[in-house]
Amino acid sequence: MTLNIKNHPCFNDSSRHTFGRIHLPVAPKCNIQCNYCSRKFDCMNENRPGVTSKVLSPRQALYYLQQAMEISPNIAVVGIAGPGDPFANPDETMETLRLVREHYPEMLLCVATNGLDLMPWIDELAELQVSHVTITINAIDPEVGSEIYAWVRHKKKMYRDIEAAKLLIGNQLEALKRLKEVGVTAKVNSIIIPGINDGHVIEVARKVSELGADILNCLPYYQTTETLFENIEEPSPVVVAEIQKATSEFLPQMKHCARCRADAAGIIGEINSEEMMLKLAEAASLPKNPSEHRPYIAVSSIEGALINQHLGEADRFLIYGMDGNSGICSLVDSRPAPLPGGGEQRWEALARILADCRALLVNGAGDSPTKVLNKQGIEVLVMEGMIEDAVHCVFTGQDVKHLMRGSQIHACKTSCTGTGGGCG
Predict the structure, then answer these.
(1) Of 17, 280, 303, 315, which shows the fewest CB atoms inside 10 Å?
(2) Does pLDDT of 325 surpass 80?
(3) In contact, 232 and 238? CB cutoff 8 Å
(4) Start-end ranges of CATH 3.30.420.130 in the chain?
């Protein structure tokens, strides 16, 4: 199979008015915190990385892609660019890429990443013929990097300041070198942040050019409220042009970047159509595997009105369904929980009990049960609030961010009065 890599609108200016791209938002978690980034906003007029209306499972993403291709058949590229980092969510990212390659063998595949956890996946990316990878490298000097990144989380350990920047930069440069060894086209994004790295981007260009990068995208920092850099002014077009000219001595420049959202679809620079956004919402409202018939949602609750019970403490689960005609949600069943203990076997038993449920709404859950249930197609949502409101939002694919738990107290990310026997 030969892929026409010239059809990639981000890497080839001549293709951007003819060929479209679609970003599949399957990667919600991020492994670094940039001082200019906030991912909690969702405004359709805001075109920037980290923003999406919905987060999809890999098979929901495939369903959405199938629908999107009917609306916009000129889509030539499927990309994964968040809303977090693809390789902070490697299982979801790689499954999505495998599914797209299986169903669309001639489609160009690409990912955009900060590069921290990219290295272990590069060989498989090459095997899947992922033709383009973008790494955002804002500094090669840890002193500069320490001003840009608040923290880095790698292999379950948190790093800060110079130590964090050294780790990130080292992993980025190592991954870039490996990408070129396996023949993957590599673009480097460098965000121009006035007073922070605007005088350093040329050194980034020099270094990544030595390692074989194919193209450089020097893009202006986007001023975002409620971030550490919210009071830094955006660089002027004149400053950006000067930096692009200086760095062009080392690498070809991408100058048509639209700072795309994590759910961007269609021609670069155009806002997602209403029809496309409706298809995205439809995909998000389906079971994690849309081909399965999962008409119900399970809830853990103490008294039956609020989502206020930790998964490990539940002795029964309330089962809700929605009438397809009226859109009314109602309680249809109550099912006993498996007995405590037994480790993963307990959660596998629960997956069988809830086999016809697309989601489980709880006030807290450990990593082990979450992984087991997710693997069986049951999405575990840790939230709080009125059951009726939450169930209706999940059934209809509405945003549930306002219901999601924000506090993270114990290792399982929730407060818990249980013994821990069998939860973790």
Answers:
(1) 303
(2) yes
(3) no
(4) 293-403
Written as six digits, the tokens of 271 are 């806002």
Find tokens 């955006």 and name the residue.
234
CATH number of the structural domain 5-283: 3.20.20.70
Model confidence band, residue 43 (pLDDT cutoffs 50, 70, 90): very low
Mean pLDDT of 346-354: 96
Residue 225's pLDDT is what? 82
Q: What percent of the chain has pLDDT over 90?
A: 64
> Sorting pLDDT into bands at 50, 70 and 90, what band is 37?
confident
Q: Could you identify the residue written with the tokens 């007029």? A: 45
How far apart, in whole angstroms, are the C-alpha atoms of residue 312 and residue 318?
A: 15
The rounded distance, in Å, linking the Cα atoms of 99 and 143 is 41
Query: Looking at residues 207-224, what average pLDDT do you find?
Result: 93
- The CA distance from 298 to 389, in Å, is 14
* Closest listed residue to residue 217, CA positions, set 133, 134, 144: 134
For residue 17, is pLDDT > 50?
no
Domain with CATH 3.20.20.70 in the chain: 5-283
Q: Where are the alpha helices (DSSP H) in 128-198?
A: 142-148, 161-181
**Cα-based angle 355, 356, 359 (whole degrees, multiple of 5):** 85
Residue 48: band (very low, low, confident or very high) from pLDDT cuts 50, 70, 90: low
Q: Which of 173, 102, 109 is nearest to 137 (CA)?
A: 173
Give the whole-angstrom CA distance, residue 264 versus residue 24: 8
Question: What number is the average pLDDT over the span 237-242?
Answer: 94
Residue 311: CB atoms within 10 A of its CB come to: 27
DSSP characters over 267-322:
STTSPPPHHHHHHHHHHHHS-SSTTS---EEEE--SSSSEE--BGGG-SEEEEEEE
Mean pLDDT across the chain: 87
- CA dist 272 and 406 (Å) reads 30
CATH superfamily entry for domain 293-403: Dinitrogenase iron-molybdenum cofactor biosynthesis domain (3.30.420.130)
| Spatial separation of the C-alpha atoms in residues 89 and 95, rounded to whole Å | 10
> What pLDDT score does 421 carry?
38
Maximum CA extent, the chain: 68
